[in-house]
Amino acid sequence: MKTLYPKSLKDLKNHVLTKSSSIYVMSKTSTVIPYDQLEKVLSEEYIVNLSQLPKRIELIDENLLIEGGVTWEEAIEYLKNTNRSIMTYPTEKSACILAGLATSATGEMAFGYGTFRDQVLSCQYMDRNGQVVDLDNKRNILSGEYQDFIDEYQGFKNPPFPRFERNCDLLIGTEGQLGVITQAIIQTVKKESYSTYFFKLPKWEEDYAPHFQLVSSVQDLRDSIRICEFLDSNSLAYLKEPLVKNSDVIVLEIKNETLEEVLEKLLPRLSLIKEEDVFEISNSKFQELRVEIPRTVNEMNALKKVVKKGTDAQVRIDSLKDLLDYYRDWAKQGVKYNLFGHIGDCHLHFNFMPDQESVESINEKLTEFYDYILSIKGSPFAEHGIGIIKKSFLEKFKNSSVQETFKELKLQHDPENIFFRSGFLSE
Ligand SMILES: Cc1cc2nc3c(=O)[nH]c(=O)nc-3n(C[C@H](O)[C@H](O)[C@H](O)COP(=O)(O)OP(=O)(O)OC[C@H]3O[C@@H](n4cnc5c(N)ncnc54)[C@H](O)[C@@H]3O)c2cc1C
After folding, report:
1. Looking at ligand 1, which atom is closest to the CA of residue 23?
2. Which of 120, 173, 220, 359 could make an S-S bridge to 162, C-beta 3.0–4.6 Å?
3. How far apart are CA 324 and CA 309, in angstroms?
4. Ligand 1 and 38: CB distance under 6 A
5. How far apart are CA 221 and CA 372, in angstroms?
6. Best mutation site among 9, 12, 16, 30 for ligand 1, i.e. most ligand atoms within 8 A of its Cβ?
7. pLDDT at residue 240, rounded to an integer
8. Can you give the pTM of this predicted structure?
9. Which domains does the chain possess?
């Protein structure tokens, strides 16, 4: 496979017009594409790295215009001296915003602000003829069985497959299989200050009642709480400077303007959590440790040459205890593991940390897990997408209308199969 780095839209167009099969990437932080093994798993001729396209970031009428390889980190920095903030960032802020459209990224702040998809006002993409096409966010609902199927996943961050509700949804969550995203305009929000609170909890394997009580208690406080994150004791043990030992934590970011009011409402609801186990830490400290954990997981897998064996499923709150019971069984399998994620949205990442020898049996467990998620109508790939790694698990979620819709989309937008042909839209 050859790698290209287009430096302008003209370079990009020239490549698209060669009609060579390519995967278009940006920061390469996707956890569902095994970048260190691409030669083995992809049949594409080219990797086209878009990170050197000219960057543009501009605040126009309180909306943020993004072109080229602008990262979430850079957008946060750009807005530092303004009174606006972005409403989304994935935990890995070195990822690019335009790639975030392709993967329908979400992140910690989805608890308070909802999904990135809904914050996209418009986007531009390069189609198979090298033309830049504009897509607005007007509603253009695909009717019929496909959309009926997707409607069953209302309330989830991402259903198993893309939610084609607005024109720009064509490029959101389709992982670059229908064109190359070149620009987006996204909403921002008025900047407000937040305080970060840690709630120290028993290990979920022993007792998850306090976790569940906290999660249930914050559901009606989303206007004031933008983050509700979970780190279990195994995840915390990876930290260079562990904040607590042999305990789990849930972290909330609470708007300062309503802090007193929120704590007054919240604390009396938490009969299972002692007041001395609630403490404040600096937001930057939390951000550092929050990203340190998944990065460590990825590094450990890379060291063992194991493809990540983790989940990305979201369930409804009435299934949260069942999900935790399911994960409890996994915790007893004798394979190292950790659990963390966006617990406020009942969206957790269970990561097996296997050696090469246990990979096969973990794959079987994951296959069974997706049967379980299907049976409770949970969302199997709520945030990180499908890529290559999750592709084998997706078949069971498809029905004939899904297959038909994928075929039609590919025929209409990419009949030569030049855009990421190893992706989930292709057979
Ligand atoms: C430590 C860690 C934490 C993470 N946390 C989160 C999280 O909280 N939430 C979350 O959603 N994700 C998370 N991720 C996953 C990852 O960061 C996101 O999927 C992110 O959107 C990928 O951005 P990227 O620039 O690295 O894209 P890449 O990995 O370069 O590409 C990802 C996919 O998008 C396609 N693509 C990229 N750019 C374009 C383009 N311009 N046009 C068309 N297609 C394109 C690629 O073909 C590929 O399929 C995390 C990853 C890590 C390593």
Report:
1. 47
2. 173
3. 17
4. no
5. 30
6. 30
7. 85
8. 0.95
9. 2-191 (3.30.465.10), 194-375 (3.40.462.40)
